[in-house]
Amino acid sequence: MGEHRTAGGIRGISKGPFIVVGTIVVVVLAAFGWFQLRDRISEQGVQAAEACVEGAVTVPVTVDPDIASQISELALRYSKTGPVVRDHCVTVEVATQNSAAITGALATGAANWDKSTLGPLPALWIPQSSDAVSGLPAGTVDGTPRSVAGSPIVLAAPSAVTAALSGAGIGWADLPRLQQTPDGLDELGLTGWGGLRLRLPLGTSSDSTPAALAAVATAVSGTPGRELTPEQVRSAPIVAAMSALSTSDLGTAASSTDSTDAELAGLSSDLGSSGAVHAVPVTEQQMTSSEQTGITAYSPTGSAPTADHPAVILAGPWMDETLSRAAAQFVEFVRQPENSQLFADAGFDVGEASTDQLSASYETRQALIAAVQDPATARRATTLVDVSRSMDTTEGSRTRLGNTVAALTQQFESVIDSTDIGLWIYSKDLDGTRAFRELVPTGPVEEQLPGGTRRQQVITAASGLRPESATSTYESVMAAFVDAQDNFAPGKPNSVVLVTDGPNDDTSVSKERLLTALSSINDPARPVAIDVVSIGTNSDATTLQSMSEITGGSFATVPSSDGPELPDLLRKLLY
Question: What does pTM read for this prediction?
Answer without folding.
Answer: 0.75
